[in-house]
Design brief:
2 copies of one chain form a homodimer. Chain A has 609 residues and is an alpha/beta fold. The first copy, chain A, is built from 20 helices and 19 strands. In chain A, helix 13 links the parallel strand 9 and strand 10. In chain A, helix 4 packs parallel to helix 5 and helix 9 packs parallel to helix 15. Chains A and B meet through helix 5, helix 6, helix 10, helix 12 and helix 13 of A and helix 5, helix 6, helix 10, helix 12 and helix 13 of B.
Chain lengths: 609, 609
């Protein structure tokens, strides 16, 4: 790199600092000092190294940049402003209502792939992007900028381990080691050796540099992709770096400068500041664009009524069937693929499957990363183990990610393994995610049909599968629109709403009650969110405005709350049957009975009304 | 260690294998091969190394043992049977309904401190126990047995990092490196060097041993506590180790032997098997028992009506006040202590505070560990970051842990930082935890009074604090029983239920409506779970059986669902106002208005009814 380039990059770095300070001072909040520490790295990446088409931030072969330390958002916005994507005048709208320049980055902005700000999540998403690039035979690199404080997050090490295992040499982590956390110094301060050893032991090539030395930064970036390991760059920096009275000082985390302080800082920076506007950057190479288009249809299914098939088995079958028609479909699992039946897909399409081992946060992050690259990612594990990735899933809501989660082994009906393996809170968790769709099929046909919609529609979907075998009760042509519900039995006393194993308990109860001259309506609530409100309300109005919900889930936040939350305003009485205590090991039938969600419990409840 | 001891331990290990095989064969499910790999380590720990009083598994100075690889439960039960705690005849009741010998260990058993089975959680709890031992000046050690597969979990590395930082040389991790996961081999197989380097880089002393060689195991255990680092023992083992036709074979994960196979295995093991019953073990040393008794009362509070105090500030004040009276109280935070106000406690009682850095899974695990040792642990961070520890909290429910979580910065009312920092799903998540209590105070007095109860009562509590300052509306003598609610305004048209910032919006709405001649009842639902059902129902019956809930939370699983779920069966109509879309940055007032939960939205809703 020639001298003039280095001076230019130094100047741009200072321009980014000025923008960051101005924006946060205008906003009256934000993290200018966390921007300043990383300004030299970002300037070098954006104007001296990365290959991208700024006019098309979504270009399939642009290098990707994830600001994992999302609180440095003003720095990111400044870089894209100098790259010509964001009007410079907009930068001071930071954090105001209506501006897409939010306090932490979100994909409302075209150059942001995933929301960041909940720390430690960027590297896992980067793994997914890097794997997708490899699958699509593209040569883009994925750069993830992390703070030193966030390295304490376990999610970072799940990602680091996976990247090492799969030798993702198209993934680069840059650690902005500015020494200072929010409430105190980090545990390791400027001991870059600690971070270096850790990344090395996780299978990475490591470079330690002065993160304020453009020459050094540019030089190590030349080494990207030269061997078969992911690259970690430990950049020793100063919080507030570049501004004499901020640099390396305590108590400046998350604080904007007042107007006088800002003026003073800018007076220091301005003389050497240079604009990046018009500076030419390398274009992405012209490799063929991957075919990420949806198929017009999927092959038909052929189940026989009455056949006993667990919905988790149907998931495995559906994934293969849909994957054959739709090249966008990829899958991943957390060392449970023989139980979730994702193994079927793995055997058929080994290149499109990623074993993520026992690391569920990263399992979800990898899926999100694939989703940002035009893939349709299906991640599976025991439903309750997705709880480990609850925060990744929450943030996926903010990212409006394309993410398909399939969780097996739900409720007390798994039996002997005991409560640690039983998903009893997953519906509550998944319902509470912004924009999520929550599905809970009861038979193989419903499972297959719902999975087709999950593949075809963009968004965050969770499908709950069950461990026990259940009979096929629907014909192969039955449709299961998201947001619907099925009336499977009609009566006049009360409407019983179930899903999964409890639907079959409700049907048993209906048979028994019928023999005693009592008619009940039974509804299959295969769509928990959005709920089949219309169908349930219609049925309830014909059954004394009374509904009983039955669910293999705790009483809070699941099917019962969903139905009550939607129907009580309509004057419907909703009685909830749910797992009414802390479960324990036992046979499924014993547990369904003991915890009050079997046919006998339903019969008893119906008779009590 | 003399020859006869080694032969005895070898014999006991085989006896543990026999028990594990018999129990799983009787149960028809379980993980015998995962027991066999660790049998030599467990035999040596229990009968040749650990100090404990088997007659009193809860003894304050017993060495602690956590089976983080909880699926090897039969091995744990076998060890305690040979130690004389579990009747040997009970072992074959494994996994049956009514037996406390569940599929994965739970604290129904006196020698189990925490439920395991959701992998990767044991080491963090071990950190808490080790820190508690140090605080109490006890010399017990904490041994955590992990599988090699679970090392992929980020939670393990959060714990490893903390143990290294705090030089917990009373914490010992033993990695049962048996090479085989559930669905395939682990990524690193028998490459013990990978694990060794990782633990070393995280600040641990590491020993690599043959995990089937009793002599080696016993020898490295002699080195416990000899330096100032935690000790990781990487034990190379074979899944199914000790049984010729199981050892190191694929496809034996989680499979019991059939009767013939079991007989064949036992025929191999029996000749050298020896009983541990009657073998003497070292007693715990007789250091003074820590005083972990509750105080009879707490000092009084003195707030002034109308004073503006954020509930998060009141948390900091309460923690100091309660901590002064109650020596059991300890606190921990994830580098947010200046925002959550836990810093006040840290400054007052630095020895009783643990900075856990940005690692929320471990923050919660450390708290759980302290809780098992008679402490009352208060863990704080932004409420939404507890989502990162959702699985630890879920499993805490199974552990019936003593755990106090205090989450700040909730809802859109935090404003400019944007959605990644806003807790909008925390009520759903916390309500869904078995046995949890969920509290949401609106002013400083309520906060202080609820915190007193959290300290005094055993169990899992979550208290939601707010960022904005709110006026003190209750007198210092007001009581806030868990499970109650306060009627703060009375009218006849409708009952509006709020909490936190929305309570104040409801009060504003009441004022405006009153000026228009419309009276509403306003209820402060400070106890979300258990809900103040009685108070709300009573009020609703006087207001046309109609309730409006208003919450700074998504519509799913929070206050609205809680009220609807409890009251709809009583014929009450519940209308929900909640954050009705994906939030963004902005001023709190703008966001409350835009997302439909401010006074104007309440007025509009009331008038629409």
């Amino acid at each position: 790199m020639i001298e003039t380039d280095i001076e230019l990059l130094k100047g741009i770095a200072n321009q980014l600092r000025i923008h960051s300070i101005n924006a946060t001072t205008a906003a009256g909040s934000g993290h200018p000092t966390s921007c300043c520490s990383a300004a030299d790295v970002v300037a070098t990446l954006f104007f001296g190294h990365m290959k991208y088409d700024a006019k098309n931030p979504h270009h399939y072969n642009n290098d990707r940049f994830i600001l994992s330390k999302g609180h440095a958002a003003p720095l990111l916005y400044a870089a894209w402003a100098e790259a010509g994507v964001v009007p410079v005048a907009d930068l001071t709208k930071l954090r105001t209502f209506g501006s897409d320049l939010e306090g932490h980055p979100t994909p409302r902005l075209p150059f942001v792939d995933v929301a960041t700000g909940s720390l430690g999540q960027g590297l896992g998403v980067g793994c997914g992007m890097a794997l997708a690039g490899r699958l699509d035979k593209l040569d883009y690199n994925t750069y993830v900028l992390l703070g030193d404080g966030e390295i304490a997050e376990g999610a970072v090490w799940e990602a680091a381990s996976l990247a090492g295992i799969y030798k993702l040499n198209n993934l680069i982590a840059i650690i902005d080691d500015n020494r200072l956390g929010q409430s105190q110094a980090t545990a390791f301060g400027h001991d870059t050796n600690v971070y270096a050893k850790r990344f090395e032991s996780f299978g990475w090539r490591v470079e330690v540099i002065d993160g304020h030395d453009i020459e050094e930064i540019a030089e190590v970036l030349q080494g990207v992709g030269l061997d078969d390991k992911p690259l970690a760059i430990i950049a020793k920096t100063y919080k507030g770096g570049g501004v004499s009275f901020l640099q390396d000082k305590d108590n400046w985390h998350g604080k904007p400068l007042n107007k006088e302080e800002a003026a003073k800082a800018i007076a220091e920076l301005q003389p050497s500041a240079k604009s990046g506007i018009g500076v030419s950057v390398q274009a992405p190479s012209s490799l063929p664009e991957p075919k990420n288009t949806a198929p017009s249809s999927y092959p038909a299914i052929s189940y026989k009524l009455g056949d006993l098939i667990a919905t988790r088995e149907a998931y495995g079958a559906a994934l293969v069937r849909i994957g054959e028609a739709d090249p966008r479909v990829v899958a991943m699992d957390g060392d449970t693929k023989n139980s979730t039946y994702a193994e079927k897909f793995f055997k058929k399409f080994p290149d499109r499957f990623t074993e993520c081992f026992i690391a569920e946060q990263n399992l979800v992050a990898v899926a999100i990363g694939f989703g940002t690259r035009g893939k349709v990612p299906f991640a599976s594990t025991f439903a309750t183990f997705f709880t480990r990735a609850a925060d990744q899933i929450r943030v996926a809501g903010i990212s409006t990610a394309n993410l398909k989660l399939v969780g097996s082994h739900v409720g007390v009906s798994i039996g002997e393994d005991g409560p640690s393996q039983m998903a009893l809170e997953d519906l509550a968790l998944m319902r509470s995610v912004a924009g999520s769709v929550v599905l809970y099929p009861s038979d193989a046909v419903a499972t297959e049909k719902l999975l087709e919609q999950m593949a075809a529609k963009r968004g965050i979907f969770f499908l709950r599968t069950s461990r026990p075998k259940t009979p096929v009760i629907y014909g192969n042509d039955e449709q299961f629109p998201v947001g619907g519900a099925k009336v499977v039995r009609q009566g006049d006393k009360v409407t019983v709403v179930g899903a999964g194993v409890t639907l079959f308990e409700a049907l048993k109860a209906a048979d028994q009650l019928k023999s005693e001259g009592i008619g009940i309506t039974v509804i299959d609530a295969y769509s928990i969110k959005p709920l089949g409100k219309k169908e349930i309300l219609e049925a309830a109005k014909k059954t004394n405005n009374t509904v009983i919900t039955v669910e293999d889930h705790y009483p809070e936040g699941g099917l019962g709350d969903a139905v009550a939350g939607e129907l009580s305003a309509e004057g419907i009485k909703v009685h909830k049957l749910a797992v009414n205590g802390l479960p324990r090991s036992g046979q499924p039938t014993e547990l369904l009975s003991h915890f009050g969600i079997d046919a006998a419990a339903i019969v008893k409840k119906v008779k009590s009304l």
